[in-house]
Specification:
alpha+beta; about 25% helix; P-loop_NTPase; 2 domains; single chain; Rossmann fold
Length: about 300
Amino acid sequence: MSRGTVATGHVTAAMDLPTGLDTTPATAVGDRLPGGWHHDDRPPPPEAPEVIVEYTTGDPDVTATGRAVRLRLTRAVAGTATLAYATYTALERARQHRQMLTLHANAVITPGGCGVLLLGSKGAGKTSVTLALGERGFTHAGDDLAVLGEHGSELLLWPGQATAAARPRDAARWQVPKPVVRLAPFAASPSALAAVVRLTVNPAVPSPLLVNALPFSINEQLRLHEALARQISGLPTPLSGPAGAPYGRVWNIDTPALAHWRTHLISRLGNHRYLYLYAPDPDSAADLITREMTT
């Protein structure tokens, strides 16, 4: 085994790898993860969390003990981009101990420097609205993966995923694979959260509308609980890689203390501007957010 340092998702950790393992494929997908993915041979910081990667000829597996998460991967999978995604997920527990978490969301920074978190189910229009906001002077802070947390009295948005898979605006090209684009300008540091907007962009919406979502309904509280826990309790990274029949059981790396902190975070979100936005298209949604956040 060889020991080095890995940095991803705004966490720096020790990482033990099988000697000779090629990390080039993992590095190549670093821009698909919040905070990138960087590995080198430097000694890790004292008391850093640990990721230990081992080869297995049986079922891939993950276990967590103390500060360490142990990944058992086949030799073929360990040398692919899956190493980066598995490392990122393995460090989600460490992120939450530092009062940060990864969630399925987009994030932008207003021209005045305020953070806006964009929530919505798959296909709700998060990426399209984010790109439209970029055209209106907003700074990108994450597509599909955003990092939210607290620092003292503030809730902060840390830079998330720096690329986006953009759906073509021509509806007739719905079957064309979405090209991946690099988001620019992109945030280089965290920003204070000013508002949360849950999006519904659908041509059936008659006209753009903003609705105050506070106080939270029971459904919204449950949606937030599910969203904030997703990276721990529902794994998007199969341990066997994406090819063939993916093997990706739920990772048992959650703790009661982290669950209580996520509940606390939801209560803090209830003290921010929290809106539901309905719009027939991304441009009208972006115009409405622009007016709301810059006036």
